[in-house]
Amino acid sequence: MASKLISAKEAVSHIKEGMTVLVGGFGIPGTPVHLVYALHDAGTKGLTLVKNDANEKDLGVGKLIASGQIDSLISSHIGLNSEAVAKMNSGEIKVDLYPQGILAEKLRTAGAGLIAFISDIGIDTPIADSREKITVNGVKGMIETALYGDVALVHAAVADIYGNCRFTGSAYNFNPVMAMAGRRVIVEAEEIVQPGGIHHDDIHLQSAFVDHVVKIPENAPDYGVLKHHAR
Amino acid sequence: MQDKERIAKRAAEEVSEGQVINLGIGIPTLIKKYLPDGQGILVQSENGILGMGNVCEAGTENRNLVDAGAAYVTTEKGAAFFDTITSFTMIRGGRIDITFLGTLEVSAEGDLANWTIPGKATPGIGGGMELAQKAKKVIVTTTHCSKDGSAKILPKCTMPLTAKGCVSMIITELAVIKITPDGPVLVELAEGATKEQVISKTEAELIIPEGELKRF
After folding, report:
1. Which of A98, A151, A152, B104 is 20–30 Å from A211 (CA)?
2. Gap between the Cα atoms of A209 and A112, Å rounded
3. What angle do CA A34, B83, A178 make, to 5 degrees?
């Protein structure tokens, strides 16, 4: 197999206007900040962004929201990004909010080649209003449809040049499922190794899910301990 | 003791040896420090941690390890990390013994409303709906009233629900209230609080047992 290593700039050139982009991360851990900033520099507009959260104002995907590259946001909780909340309230960005695990399961469903699944999460709440109802074995549920992305951006602790990945700490989060649901998958990694550099037992995301691998430079900004969240 | 600490300390007494618990944002995060050591109690964090420790001392943070509120945290011996699919399989699959949540409103029948104030604030849903609906036990830890003094414990919720009939206990700075099929029962009073005070600050009709109540 050939190496999948490419530059961040070349990787994000695959993201075209109007595409749906899946982005890993829960807060900064696991957010592919280097790729997101490359997409910011590329200036590609009209994007639909799928991410657990909106990071924070001018941080992570917050930069894409500030620059007006995002038309639509599919997320679980955007409360830490005041600008995303303001743009949602003004209607500048269309925002669809899902229960966190349901968002993940919609992506997994797409990644697993399925059409939809049935859930009763939120059945007694306003989120049920827009869902098709169905009763299975006497239990009332709702249909939750698969959610695909044109491109997925993933952050790994270690990747080999074939795209096998290992995650670390709470940076694991949405990354594997974003990769599974993306038609083209770009991984950024803190460390790049040769095949075999991650033991077979320790591979959390397998190379078959990955198209491109990007090395995060040593001096890349913002993927670090954020002083305002530390004691 | 400050009100929020008193709530957290009382809430910690509900946790038994070996249980898996999830702590929501706000008052619930204060519960961790009151949990007894050496009893194998595991805190699950929905962003992918089972066996979460405490907030890190300055200078010891790991950039790849935060809780669901973005604070840098430690882990305990026996901790495990996992992805979101696994985390919510744990949550929806009934592996969480107790979830402690804050709230905007809670009803006499245990309905919970804590994710949106229509026309004002809808920051998101997060993991709250799944925790409220599928944890084995839901305990609300909250100030008895809102900041503007209005009651939070109501006959019916006025705001959109998070989950219906999920709450089994409410712990406030004034009282412990159990939700039962007969209605909400006042079971304990905080030191210094009176039955009359709790009744006047609760819009739901409380069942008040005769005689002295246990204090916390």
Report:
1. A98
2. 11
3. 50
Q: Do B48 and A28 touch (CB under 8 A)?
A: no
What are the backbone dihedrals phi and psi of residue B208, each rounded to the nearest 5 degrees, phi first? -110, 115
**Pair of tokens at residue B29:** 């995060």
Please, what are the domains in chain B? 3-215 (3.40.1080.10)
| CATH architecture, domain defined by A17-97+148-216 | 3-Layer(aba) Sandwich (3.40)
- Give DSSP secondary structure letters for A170-204: GG-BTHHHHHHHEEEEEEEEEEEE-TTSS-GGG-S
- Percent pLDDT > 90 in chain A is 95
| Helix, coil or strand: residue A111 | helix
Q: What is the pLDDT of residues B101-126, one digit of tens each?
A: 999 999 999 999 999 998 887 899 99
Start-end of H helices in chain A = 8-12, 33-42, 62-66, 82-90, 100-111, 175-181
Rounded to 5 degrees, what angle do the CA atoms A136, A139, A141 make?
75
Residue of A97, A100, A176 lying closest to B83 (CB–CB): A176
**Domain map of chain A by residue range?**
17-97+148-216
| Candidate from B49, B81, B129 with C-beta closest to A99 | B129
Distance, in Å, from the CA atom of B132 to the CA atom of B194, rounded to the nearest integer, reads 30
Q: Please tell me the pTM assigned to this model.
A: 0.97
A209 lies within 8 A of chain B by CB: no
User: C-alpha B198: how far from its chain's center?
Assistant: 19
What's the ipTM? 0.97
B172, B7 in Cβ contact below 8 A? yes
